[in-house]
């Protein structure tokens, strides 16, 4: 790979020009929790995207996003599981470490997978510590809405910034009646509001609102002092998050109503690989320029050597 090294914070070709604090309060600075809090105060939208490996992290970095989440959606988008439930902590930490290697400026958040934090505060802290120690994450995220407030509080007390998640929390989609929007009655909406408040009080630095009616978000936002990042929660949140594979059109499966496709990369990938396959089958690849050459006298000598009966050949010297 031959991309020229960039100074952290230097905008890549094609990236949106940085505004005063679009890449951190100081030019070239990393996005920190205080940058995000300042964004909320100034009413400047926060951009969050998921990434699951080194190249997607490099893309997020070059595009100038603020927060990168190594989401447990990796289970489906890159590991091929049918839902987010089977992905393990080991798998998530491995993916997060790859993302870290491709990322400098955005805040990096690791998503605690199903089964890695619910059992006890000790388990939650130990899992969060693995994201920080082994993968270099800046923060972690947990699901289960307000039921996770105690775990969130324990993780925050252990010195690890934590992000909450309310509304549709896919790890418990079955208990929530499937992959459907949450808070559609006043009573259920009140529960979503209470969940968000509980996570805020527990010390979360931010919270994700997923798949809740716009009216519910509008009503809850007044009580939110921490940044709220929405996904299918309307425009009133402090920022938005989308899954990398959804927004770029890499994922072939069903996508939710809130997904906006900004590219059709999968089609381009299939077309590229299909063209390569055609070229190989029709002997159009490789072309002369793709090969290595040997000096003519060496090539002639090789032919002589190969023509000699094996018994007469000098044993090959040197090492391979
Ligand atoms: O896992 C994930 O990708 C998420 C986002 C959709 C917020 O939790």
Question: What do you see in this structure?
Answer:
The structure is a single chain. This protein has about 325 residues and is of the alpha/beta class. The protein contains eleven helices and eight strands. Strands 1-2-3-4-5-6-7-8 form an eight-stranded parallel β-barrel, surrounded by six helices. α7 links the parallel β5 (about 160-165) and β6. The two termini are about 25 Å apart. Residues about 1-10 and about 15-25 have low confidence and may be disordered. Bound molecules: 3-methyl-2-oxobutanoic acid. The site of 3-methyl-2-oxobutanoic acid has 10 residues, from loops.
Summarize the structure.
The protein has helices at residues 33-42, 54-63, 74-77, 89-101, 121-135, 149-157, 186-201, 214-221, 244-247, 265-281, 296-307, and strands spanning 46-50, 67-70, 107-111, 139-141, 162-167, 206-210, 228-231, 239-242. The chain is α/β, with parallel strands linked by helices and 320 residues long.
């Amino acid at each position: 790979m031959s991309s020229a090294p960039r100074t952290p914070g230097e905008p890549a070709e094609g990236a949106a020009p940085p505004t005063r604090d679009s890449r951190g309060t100081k030019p070239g600075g990393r996005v920190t929790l205080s940058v995000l809090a300042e964004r909320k105060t100034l009413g400047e939208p926060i951009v969050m995207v998921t990434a699951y490996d080194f190249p997607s992290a490099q893309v997020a970095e070059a595009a100038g996003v603020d927060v990168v989440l190594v989401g447990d959606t990796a289970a489906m988008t890159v590991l091929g599981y049918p839902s987010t439930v089977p992905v393990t902590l080991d798998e998530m930490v491995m993916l997060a470490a790859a993302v870290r290697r491709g990322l400098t400026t955005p805040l990096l958040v690791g998503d605690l997978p199903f089964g890695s934090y619910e059992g006890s505060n000790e388990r939650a802290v130990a899992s969060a510590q693995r994201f920080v120690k082994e993968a270099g994450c800046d923060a972690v995220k947990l699901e289960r809405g307000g039921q996770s407030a105690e775990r969130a509080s324990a993780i925050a007390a252990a010195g690890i910034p934590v992000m909450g998640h309310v509304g549709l929390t896919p790890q418990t989609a079955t208990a929530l009646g499937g992959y459907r929007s949450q808070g559609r009655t006043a009573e259920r909406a009140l529960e979503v509001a209470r969940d968000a408040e509980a996570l805020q009080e527990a010390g979360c630095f931010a919270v994700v609102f997923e798949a809740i009616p716009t009216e519910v978000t509008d009503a809850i936002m007044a009580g939110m002092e921490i940044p709220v990042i929405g996904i299918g929660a309307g425009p009133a949140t402090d920022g938005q998050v989308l899954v990398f594979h959804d927004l770029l059109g890499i994922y072939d499966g069903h996508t939710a109503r809130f997904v906006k496709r900004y590219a059709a990369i999968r089609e381009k990938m299939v077309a590229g690989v299909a063209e390569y396959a055609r070229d190989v089958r029709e002997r159009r690849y490789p072309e002369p320029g793709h090969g290595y050459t040997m000096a003519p006298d060496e090539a002639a000598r090789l032919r002589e050597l190969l023509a000699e009966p094996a018994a007469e050949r000098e044993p090959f010297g040197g090492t391979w």
